[in-house]
Amino acid sequence: MTVEKALAERSAELASNYDKIWQQVQNKAKGRQVRLVAVSKLKPASDILALYEHGVRHFGENYVQEMIGKANELPKDINWHFIGGLQSGKCKDLGKGIENLYAVETLDSLKKVKKLDNARQNAKLPPINIYLQINTSSESQKAGYSLDNLEEIYETVEYLKQSESLKLEGIMTIGSFAESTSDAGINQDFARLADLKKQLDEKYSVDLQLSMGMSSDFEAAIEQGSSSVRVGTSIFGARPPRNGH
Length: 245
Ligand SMILES: *Cc1c(COP(=O)(O)O)cnc(C)c1O
Fold this sequence. Notes:
Elements: H1 8-29, E1 35-39, H2 45-53, E2 58-61, H3 64-73, E3 79-82, H4 91-97, E4 101-107, H5 110-123, E5 128-133, H6 150-162, E6 166-172, H7 177-181, H8 188-204, E7 209-211, H9 218-223, E8 228-231, H10 233-236
Pyridoxal-5'-phosphate (PLP) is lined by residues 39, 41, 62, 83, 174, 214-216, 230-234.
């Protein structure tokens, strides 16, 4: 292991932040199983190692090369989640780069699913869990399958049923800033994702997981059925700008 250790003070801070969020997750989950994915993008491997030593095993990353680099130097029983925007051209690297890649949560087209599937198959690595990203807010700047074209989602689900390298675990959304910060009661984006789950569960006799909720809205997301929340800032603190911008 070549990763430098975090300072004792930093390790204690991370553990305390994580425990606080974990407690909030449990309070909202009311006995349901809800996973807390620690989103470590742009944070040093030493931070991840500190939380690993605290018992955390699920980490989320947004950039393919950064995640591969970290996965190579960190313990092999970490469950990595890729949660960043995925370009077609990166599917191959993602599929073959990390043996212990647990999930890719941001697939938004059948074309990318096929590319990732082929890469994983050729690399002869263990299967990856897949979440289809859904653009529940219909914002043009957001990635994800459109809810206006369910056929495209069905086609992908049907393709995944036949795959040996990719396993459909759930659906994911980011949700709009407006919904996340409104106090008008339920978050409509989360409600749309929960509705889609219900529909897919019935159509395909499955029980899909729901990945929704971040630092600002994970409690609301759990109340609306989320089974996997992705929390970065509240655990690691504010992120540095990417590439020094
Ligand atoms: C960065 C990121 C998160 C974590 O966001 P925070 O607000 O820092 O908790 C969660 N999900 C996705 C898709 C992200 O890109």
